Amino acid sequence: MIEVKGLTKDYGPIRALNGLSFKIEQGEVFSLLGPNGAGKTTLIKVLTTLSKPESGTAIVNGFDVLEQPIEIKRRVAVVPQENNLDRELTARENLLIYAMLHDVPERDRKISEALETVGLSERRDSVVSHFSGGMQRRLLLGRALLSEPSVLFLDEPSTGLDAQIRRQLWDIIRKTKREGRTVVITTHYIEEAEALSDRVGILSKGNMIALDTPKNLKARVGEYVVEFVNGKGEFIQHMCGSREEAHEIAKGIESAITVRRSNLEDVFINLTGERIE
Amino acid sequence: MLLYKRRLLRLGYLISTMVVPIVYLVAFGFGLGKSVQLQGTRYLDFLIPGLVSMSSMINSYTWVANSLNLDRLYFKTFQVFIQSPIRPVSILVGEVLASVVKGLLTSVLIIVAGLITSPGFSLTPLFIVALVLNCFLFANLGVITGMLSKSHEDIGTYSNFFILPMAFFGGTFFPVDKAPPLLKAVIYLMPLTHTNILIRKTALDGEALASFVVLVAYAALFLVLGSRIIRKYSE
Predict the structure, then answer these.
(1) What is the per-residue pLDDT for A59?
(2) Low-confidence stretches of chain A (pLDDT beneath 70)
(3) Which residue of B70, B77, B229, B232 to mutate against A (max A Cβ within 10 Å)?
(4) Using an 8 Å Cβ cutoff, are A8 and A56 in contact?
């Protein structure tokens, strides 16, 4: 479990995290959704002990990020936003170094399993610089799974990937959850947050402005959206609590309309007045 | 080691580290040295230990400074280590030892060249001690600048301010005891000056002992500072 209380992190005059307080339960897939600069990566860095907060506490699986960082590092793994594989080494060698750093037992077997899980067994002896972006991201995930972490952090895992690779990544994440691990994902793809998450925390400018299941978040603002362009050429969105309400509103509009189910971006816009992307 | 093994197989990698000292050896040792004698000895015999000191300083310092800077700021591979369940001092020890090996390896090549070209040049116990201590000291300094630099350009700036003056004024190319008093005071603050004193000694006299103590003090200071910087690292 992860418990955060009053967490604050500054970068000079900029407050990246503003007194965050929330919990993530063991075994859940928790997404942090928000635009660039919301504080998602900063929060991951604090929870994985890469960054020290100015104030507040963060407890990961019972260990404090400031007092017991090594205990946390034994139990978590990170798939970072940047590709930090060693490009001059092979896939197997990258995993070997990680396995040595994390004191993974039965290294050779675990490395083979990790490569199998992410579908890179045949490329084990290929130098990483020859890998495509999708292959490198899969290798990053395989590396993170090598130490069998209790908590897996994924920072923008789908950025730059095509739809097929993204789906493959999601399948691996779902498998990881079935193994009982806690998964924390930062993303600005609403589809990803909706597809994978038990709960979603919406971050904006360092503040957690909402936290709940995707279904409950959407129910707060309305499960349906009626969209149309009014007589002045303005794009209007009307949130509705039910399909019947949406149809009633739609009847009164003469221009072309779209009635659809609401999504997390609608939630974000309603809460902040801004778009996520 | 994995990276080192792969790079060593590239011919240019090993040879490139020797180019600068060999150029100096040829230009100053064989060129200028033919007509110069220093305190009754051939200039080449004076120069070779100095080139070993200078080269080991540059290679030990530069390798780790560049490596930490690039790995931390650009490739983000440093973060793989700092987020692993190992003590921060282990990272320091690993980086320093790798850099010491690099410094020693390039020194071996120059020493071999010296043994072939200069009958007056020989390896003494003090030579080995000075060389290893020099590599260790500058590797730790490289850790400090590698960790403190905010961009890759900063590494060059630090080199220009500290490493380059030491290379030319620290007793590599000429004895420092005849320098003007004000300059001498600055020169004797430089660690490389004391390496060059110690590396040329055949016996542990008072001067050698004083230089040894200075080098150990610098090494300890840089080690403590580097260790502290890595322990307190936060993004």
Answers:
(1) 97
(2) 276-277
(3) B77
(4) yes
- The per-residue pLDDT for B97 is 95
Domains of chain B, by residue range, sit at 2-231
Q: Give the confidence band of B11 by pLDDT, cuts at 50, 70, 90.
A: low
User: How near does any CA of chain B get to the CA of A97, in Å?
Assistant: 9
Compute the nearest-CA separation of B76 from chain A (Å): 5
Q: How far apart are CA A91 and CA B55, in angstroms?
A: 35
Burial of B174 from C-beta contacts in 10 A (0-12 / 13-18 / 19+): middle
Reading phi first (left if > 0) and then psi (alpha if -120 to 50, else beta), residue A127 is in beta
Q: What is the pLDDT of residue B32?
A: 65
Contact check, Cβ <8 Å, B79/A80? yes
The domain made up of A2-214 has a fold known as Rossmann fold (3.40.50)
- Give just the sign of the alpha carbon dihedral A170, B77, A44, A177: positive
At A18 the pLDDT is 95
A269: exposed, middle or buried (C-beta count within 10 Å: 0-12, 13-18, 19+)?
Answer: middle
Burial state string for A89-100 with b = 16 or more CB within 10 A and e = fewer than 16:
bbbbbbbbbbbe
Q: Are strands A76-79 and A151-155 parallel, antiparallel or unpaired?
A: parallel
Pairing of strands A55-60, A2-11: antiparallel
* B73 within 8 A of B148, measured Cβ to Cβ: no
Flag the least confident range among A80-89, B87-96, B113-122.
Answer: B113-122
Flag if B235 and A50 touch (Cβ within 8 Å).
Answer: yes
Tell which residue, B122, B148, B114, B155, has the closest CA to residue B228. Answer: B148
Q: What is the pLDDT of residue B57?
A: 95
Q: Give B41's strand partners.
A: B38
pLDDT for residue A235: 85
Distance CA B195, CA B126 (A): 10
For residue range A9-28, what is the model confidence (pLDDT) as tens digits? 999 999 999 999 999 999 99
Task: Tell me the two tokens of residue A14.
Answer: 């900029």
